[in-house]
């Protein structure tokens, strides 16, 4: 339902709200922080199919534009809305809202650039038409980003991509994980080593690297399973689950690889409680699950291609993989040995950003305070 925003309310522009993902979580966190600091704000969305307010702990105002299907109708809806409420300038959450707002003539907008086109799909398999469309879209987005607002990213990688794709010098605000009250729990491996990963099961998450790497450890002179019983739990839906299930079976470790699909919050928390090592060799702009794992006391294995690795390079709490898949086996061995020996137990964790720290920096960069 469309509502009228309060006077001087800061607009946070999102697109289709279909599920509660990372982008949605970040804007709810920002809205909450602003509310707690008496800064009026509201979300502007095409529609709200997941009842986003149910995930908020504060009164969350959402203006639904409900345009007819199609980009032209969405852009027209944004143009009409921001002509009616031209100030304060909006903060667009993501690439597509930034593109649509620019097409709608909004200038001086701020942008949370969660991902850039290199993370949308494998560039090598894109069609020529797709490459042209992205190149044109990048030029439009760049025009909007250079019109007076602030571009905000979570990592050095995304800042570099913004320079390359949009000719914009973005500012970094590192996103946090669990609330500050969370206390890490010491986890000692006894009868079984529990490996865990949570993500959408797609190509950029490199779940195939995990499976082939673990299978390789089973083929060594001293198989991993002869040292400790182990299993890998994977939470999340995605198109590759059937193929990866067959891969695990073919490699002889099918009984140790468990795809759980979509899990409830309670089920997810139980998987975290049982985990000793979190695996995240993915390509991604940031990687909040690594932060949340560390805050729970779970060491992580991640790739340098995850933006969160910027702050996890020099700590026994994280094994940072660089390069191609041929380095995965060594990284897995290092991470697993570290967990079995408890090398991280007596070392302080690195400073981990919180949601509130991130929200305060975003609000400051948007000059909303």
Describe the structure.
It is a single chain. This protein has 369 residues and is α/β, with parallel strands linked by helices. The protein has 2 domains: 177 residues, Rossmann fold; 150 residues, Rossmann fold (3-Layer(aba) Sandwich), CATH 3.40.50.2000. Helix content is 37%, strand content 16%. It has 12 helices and 15 strands. The strands form 3 sheets. Strands 5-3-1-6-7-8-9 form a 7-stranded parallel β-sheet. It has a 6-stranded parallel β-sheet with strand order 12-11-10-13-14-15, with helices on both faces. A two-stranded parallel ribbon has the order 2-4. Helix 1 crosses helix 12, helix 3 crosses helix 4 and helix 6 crosses helix 11. The protein is globular, with a radius of gyration of 22 Å. The mean pLDDT is 92.
Considering the chains and any ligands shown, give keywords for the structure.
369 residues; alpha/beta; Rossmann fold; seven-stranded parallel sheet
Taken from the alpha-carbon principal axes, the silhouette is globular
Strand content: 15-25%
Question: What is the succession of H and E elements?
Answer: EEHEEEHEHEHEHEEHHEHEHEHEEHH
The CATH superfamily of the largest domain is known as Glycogen Phosphorylase B
CATH architecture term of the largest domain: 3-Layer(aba) Sandwich
Regions with little confidence, pLDDT below 50 for 5+ residues: none
Count the DSSP helices. Answer: 12
The total domain count is: 2
Average of pLDDT: 92
CATH topology annotation of the largest domain: Rossmann fold
Radius of gyration: 22 Å
What is the strand tally? 15
- Oligomerization status of the protein chains: single chain
Q: Biggest sheet: strands side by side, in what order?
A: 5-3-1-6-7-8-9
The level-1 CATH class of the largest domain: Alpha Beta
* Ends apart, CA distance between termini: 28 Å
Largest sheet: 7 strands, parallel
Structural class: alpha/beta
Helix content: 25-40%
